[in-house]
Amino acid sequence: MGRPSSALARSNPTKTLAQWLESLRRRSGLSWSQVAQAAAETDLVVSRSTLFRSVQGETVPKWKTVQVFARVCGGDEREAKRLWYGAACRAVTRTGVVRRTAVLSPQFITEPWQLIHAMNRMRRENGEPTLRELEEKATVRGVSFLPRSTVSAVLRGRMPAKPLLRHFVRCCGNVPEHRLKDWEDAWDRADAHRRGGVPVAAGEAQDALARAEEELRRIRARLDEARGQLGEATAALRRVTRAARAPAPCAGPAVPVPSAGEPAGAQPRSVSAASTAGDGAGLPPQGRTRRDRRRSPCTTVRHG
């Protein structure tokens, strides 16, 4: 069993990692020399003194050292990665105050210190390879694009050159070719900020914003015009609807009706079709009652 977790360990991820590594070694029953010897057989060469210092909780060990404990002592490598990453991302001062600094994605980097911070985090996330390993990985025909001295100065705060940044993210972060453009744009913005100018991407964004505002104004003008046309069409539709609902006039075609007492060959008089409906149909106005005339007010009589 490992040492009991203290309050300092719960607030200090470096202490938490150290206690977890020590608990793995004790549970396995191996001595420091046995752990170092077993690590050498797995191509992870770590000295006995390095293994001992890693469980003291004073500094964050390298990922390779943590891997030795996980593989040789039977620990979960995913849990080891989680604890190690938490300890590497948090720097604990002697006063116990935890300093946290947000690391931005390359799309949001605008200043040199943000770019350097992102490079350091990339190195930690990928097992914190040594400067010599990076130098050898970026060597082409005997010439390295990542010299140890230059990379060391950059990680301590010097603004990197664009070719160095490109080779660093490719060799250290295994960034694919189609993602290198994001880091190159980040370098352009950081370099423009260092020189006191306006980043190229920011200028392009301002032009795009101006074009979008102009297009928005044109769309609003067309929308106002369409609203006016819609109002006119609605008013015309209302007028047509009111006209359709109004009562139609009662005039109709004249129907010839023979008068009583007239000879058979005489020309009959014409009475409108409306006068044939209802009570008193076919009667002249003199023979109708007042009620009949009120009931069929649209009757028209034409005498031949």
Report on this model:
The protein is mainly α and 304 residues long. The chain is 55% helix and 6% strand. It has helices spanning 7-11, 13-28, 32-41, 48-54, 63-72, 77-88, 112-125, 131-137, 148-155, 162-171, 180-195, 200-245, 290-295; strands at residues 91-92, 98-99, 139-140, 143-144, 254-257, 269-272, 301-302. The chain has a 3-stranded antiparallel sheet, with no helix packed on it. Strands 1-2 form a two-stranded antiparallel sheet. The longest helix is centred in the last third of the chain and has 46 residues, at 200-245. The model is unreliable at 1-10, 91-99 and 270-281 (pLDDT under 50).
Number of helices: 13
Proportion of helical residues = 40-55%
Describe the global form: elongated
Total strands: 7
Return the structural class.
mainly alpha
Question: What is the beta-strand fraction?
Answer: 5-15%
Distance between the termini: 130 Å
Q: Report the mean per-residue pLDDT as an integer.
A: 76
Q: Largest beta sheet, briefly?
A: 3 strands, antiparallel
Would you list the SSEs in sequence order as H and E? Answer: HHHHHHEEHHEEHHHHEEHE
Neighbour order of strands in the largest sheet: 5-6-7
Low-confidence stretches: 1-10, 91-99, 270-281
Task: Sum up the structure in keywords.
304 residues; mainly alpha; three-stranded antiparallel β-sheet; two-stranded antiparallel ribbon; 13 helices; 55% helix; disordered N terminus
